[in-house]
Amino acid sequence: MTDHELQPAEVYYGSGHSGELVRIRVPGGQLQLDDGSTAVVSVTDFPGLRIGGEYGLFLSRISGDVQGDRYQLAWGTQGAFELTSRRTVMPLGSVVAPIPRRFANESIADLVTATKTAAETARRLRGKRQH
Fold first, then answer.
1. pLDDT tens column, 118-131
2. What is the tally of structural domains in the chain?
3. DSSP structure class, residue 116
4. pTM given for the model
């Protein structure tokens, strides 16, 4: 696992805020061994996150996290999308699941609109359960 610190430009749902530093944990990465050598662990169908990349990430808080402030990708690697320079969406995980398959090569605007709609629906449903 590799921990990253990110600063989201926008947050559509949850407790985070735009511009607030977020710590996330993703599968794969590099490990320094006691003898000084390194091992690289890669995950099939997940290239990881690169410095300077622009992403659409669906996150969930890591349950049982002692510090309580780290997140992981929701739905495993299927919760990560690279936002390309062509302004399209490239799923970083397998496109077997409905959400990555639906948005592969679609416009970023389509992903944002669908995410905002889903977030609003979740807020309404949550509000109804609390009454």
1. 999 988 888 777 65
2. 1
3. H
4. 0.80
